Amino acid sequence: xxxxxxxxxxxxxxxxxxxxxxxxxxxxxxxxxxxxxxxxxxxxxxxxxxxxxxxxxxxxxxxxxxxxxxxxxxxxxxxxxxxxxxxxxxxxxxxxxxxxxxxxxxxxxxxxxxxxxxxxxxxxxxxxxxxxxxxxxxxxxxxxxxxxxxxxxxxxxxxxxxxxxxxxxxxxxxxxxxxxxxxxxxxxxxxxxxxxxxxxxxxxxxxxxxxxxxxxxxxxxxxxxxxxxxxxxxxxxxxxxxxxxxxxxxxxxxxxxxxxxxxxxxxxxxxxxxxxxxxxxxxxxxxxxxxxxxxxxxxxxxxxxxxxxxxxxxxxxxxxxxxxxxxxxxxxx
Length: 333
Fold this sequence. Notes:
The protein is of the alpha/beta class. Helices cover 38% and strands 16% of the residues. It has 13 helices and 12 strands.
């Protein structure tokens, strides 16, 4: 522990990553901050497309501020004209603590330090100078994304041992799902999610079809999920499956997708946002890693969620599907 922190009125958090998984992996640290400082105003600075997620986690986030990009950040082009006013406004807020929760800090440490907080904590690339040994830890590339930020908080004296993920589902989300469920007669179903935010993370669609066929032959309804852009992918998979399928790609909001997963007995997917959503909802899953690091991104519960690394054969996935379903029967019992 170094330089314990207390008596904070205003905290700023910088995490300008675009993905659902990126956001959900930060939730345990957000919860730890709220638990330690229940009266503190917590401001999350992120990309505009994360604003609705920030609103969903209003129990941990009091305010969302959209970042107008920043030089060197690939996620969004920098609006150089807007940045001076942006930083001037945030400096005037006089944050007590700024937390850099975005990568190794090569780009985001200067960004976070621009906020002018009384104290800034975060990570630094070991090959680069450390901004402050009492406030910054070396960035370990293979460290799990959830545990990384809990370790940072513990380092500065903030209790942060709870690594459980979560995702709030609103009544409206469940109502929308009930409508879908009645339309399609959903009962005992498994979800197949063959897409990913990055194409290199995708397992082959014909193999996903074989997994769906295997499950359908054992009496499972098959629900195909995905984005609007992945509708063609799910239709091609549906054509390869002899049994009827329910193709909901592009037909659900994020909240409705969460409610769909909540009633699901199994998810088979690539390493993408829905795998983290399943982990947050404790939905049994088999996650196939193709172009990302399972040490950093796989679910922490290794019994309920099984991660498979390349080369992944259909038989490998079937083996893990059976393992997960057996484990889930023990949970239910």
